[in-house]
Amino acid sequence: MKIVVCMKQVPATSKVDIDPETGAMKRMSGETRTNPYDLFALETALSIREKTGGTVTVLTMGPPQAEEMIRDAYTMGADEGVILSDRKFAGADVLATSYALAQGIQVIGGADLIICGRQTTDGDTAQVGPAIAEHLTIPHAAWVAEIMDVNEKNIQVRQDLVSVSQVSEIPYPCLLTIDKDTCVPRLPSYLLKKATSDRPVRILSFEDMPDQDLSRYGLIGSPTSVEKMFAPEESEKQVYLEGTAKEKADRLVALLTGKKII
Questions:
Q1: What is the largest CA-CA distance in the chain?
Q2: What percent of the chain has pLDDT over 70?
Q3: Domain segments of the chain as ranges
Q4: N or C terminus of the chain with fewer C-beta within 10 Å?
Q5: Are the beta carbons of 59 and 108 closer than 8 angstroms?
Q6: Regarding the domain with residue range 2-216, which homologous superfamily does it belong to in the CATH classification?
Q7: For position 260, what pLDDT does the model report?
Q8: Which positions ≥6 away from 27 have C-beta within 8 Å?
Q9: Which distant-in-sequence residues (6+ apart) come within 8 Å of 104 by Cβ?
Q10: Using CA of residue 124, residue 126, residue 129, residue 130, what is the dihedral sign?
Q11: Residue predicted with more confidence, 203 or 232
């Protein structure tokens, strides 16, 4: 089975630079980390590969520094890594991002199973995975909480959808978005780190895409735009409540109510 895992580097801190013209984050500013949800996606892919055989390819879109994330995935067991990296991809919204990733999947020969994290911690839209499936015209299941069965023809999953739990059986090729806490991501292996130190990471640019219509990619191909983006203000103010237990409880309730937290 050929499995593709879509992953992303996200800011590891709120201290990032914002492009004053586009309102988008400058991806090469500040520290980054692998999107936490994507670690569950990668672990799911590796576990399925252990049962069915095949390969796991990690695909991402971003600046060249994303190679660091790919190499971390190698130390967990991924077989191949591909980065879509081109200035023409910059500033992409959900539609343009998902389209570029769908094109990239076609370039590497397609996949039997595509797995994404439920969402990213920077965008939080939870829409890129389903949008990739729509671009590729394949079935998908979002918010997957459990892989129930895997066989040669289809995969059976349980989805937790807010107020209901649904079991779906989906034929290949298909796409899943994996919720957090569905599994425990394995730790990186030092032996794999040494064994994969020379393993190449494939870089794809706009020129490699099957569709050369520039209006489908990056900022130009994004029908939505960011009006304003800013880092949240840091606040370390502490409030101490005194009095009896009941008095402190009453003051706490009043404080939380005033801040519209409850």
A1: 70
A2: 90
A3: 2-216
A4: C
A5: yes
A6: HUPs (3.40.50.620)
A7: 79
A8: 9, 62, 63
A9: 59, 61, 82, 84, 204, 209
A10: negative
A11: 203
Adjacent-strand bridge partners of 219: none
Is the separation of the CB atoms in 157 and 176 below 8 Å? yes
Q: Is the peptide bond prior to 64 cis by the omega test (within 30 degrees of 0)?
A: no
Q: Find out whether 116 and 132 touch, Cβ atoms under 8 Å.
A: yes
In the structure encoding, which two tokens stand for residue 70, read together? Answer: 């790919």
User: pLDDT per residue over 178-219, tens digit each?
Assistant: 998 899 999 999 999 999 999 999 999 999 999 999 999 999
What torsion do the CA atoms of 118, 119, 121, 123 make, to the nearest 10 degrees? -170
The confidence score (pLDDT) of residue 25 equals 55
Nearest to 82 by CA among 194, 199, 163: 199
**What is the pLDDT at residue 154?**
96
pLDDT number for residue 155: 98
